[in-house]
Model the fold of this input.
Amino acid sequence: LARGTALRLAGRPAEAAAALARAREVFERADASGELADTWRELAAVRAGLGDWRGAYEAQAAATALAERL
Done:
């Protein structure tokens, strides 16, 4: 998650998306809902930065759904 965030802030969105996808897999396997919600939020920011508004909306919706279950 931290690597994905750093890559997004460094202006490297493709690498950020890949790092966040890996983080999402790890947090899903670990059943770490809080971290998974944070990962989805960060992925939403990456997708928005790439102009993928539908993907950003879907990622933010996933983050919101997880956060509501916490």
